[in-house]
Amino acid sequence: NFKNQLLTDHGHNPLMKKVFDVYLCFLQKNQSETALKNVFIALRALIFKFPSTFYEGRADMCSALCYEILKYCNSKLSSIRTEASQLLYFLMRNNFDYTGKKSFVRTHLQVIISVSQLIADVVGIGGTRFQQSLSIINNCANNDRIIKHTTFPSDVKDLTKRIRTVLMATAQMKEHENDPEMLVDLQYSLAKSYASTPELRKTWLDSMARIHVKNGDLSEAAMCYVHVAALVAEYLTRKGMI
């Protein structure tokens, strides 16, 4: 039946991709407050019914969803920020349940990567509104009685702390945006701090490369891409794919 078709290959199939793209389109286009709230409700149902789509196999759909939800965590409307924060919490909580209450590594990583990307894409990310959303997520974890005696609340706290660290580092970068060398040094330090997380290191190396290209430093940009290629090659070797 239709549900089984959607579940083929853990939810990574052309049919599910089309369904997910419809949801994503609703998030990417300007919507009324009421419409957005209904989209958030529909997404909860999708995550609950098809968890493997987001927590197994490729991370592309989980990544895209985290990115769009985090954008709404910076919304000017407090009601939308609250709804978006609660949806992101639901995504993390559901991930934790899916692993048998062991961890939510998939969502944790994709949230950090999305924040790193949003810093470059969205003006004002990391301001008061976004900080309030992080507090809402923390409060949800602290007030969730069912998982009170698990590692989940402290893991959520660790995630929001990491996000704030990235935002603080970015604020420093903003101060030195007219000093290309200092800016790249700060980005390199941040990339180096994620040595154990290839996906995040790649995100910041890509960002460094864009700055070098913008400043006409093509040799330095090429070195960034060589590092990225080495990271990808090392990862594929470990997976036995090359």
Automatic annotation (TrEMBL):
Keywords: Guanine-nucleotide releasing factor. InterPro entries: ARM-type_fold, DOCK, DOCK_C_lobe_A, DOCKER_dom, DOCKER_Lobe_A. The keyword Oxidoreductase does not apply. It holds the Pfam family DHR-2_Lobe_A. Residues 192-242 form the DOCKER domain. It comes from the Eukaryota. One of its GO terms (molecular function) is guanyl-nucleotide exchange factor activity. GO terms for biological process: small GTPase-mediated signal transduction. Belongs to the DOCK family. PANTHER family: DEDICATOR OF CYTOKINESIS DOCK, DEDICATOR OF CYTOKINESIS PROTEIN 9. This is DOCK9 protein. It comes from Chroicocephalus maculipennis (Brown-hooded gull). The lineage of its organism: Eukaryota, Metazoa, Chordata, Craniata, Vertebrata. The gene is Dock9.
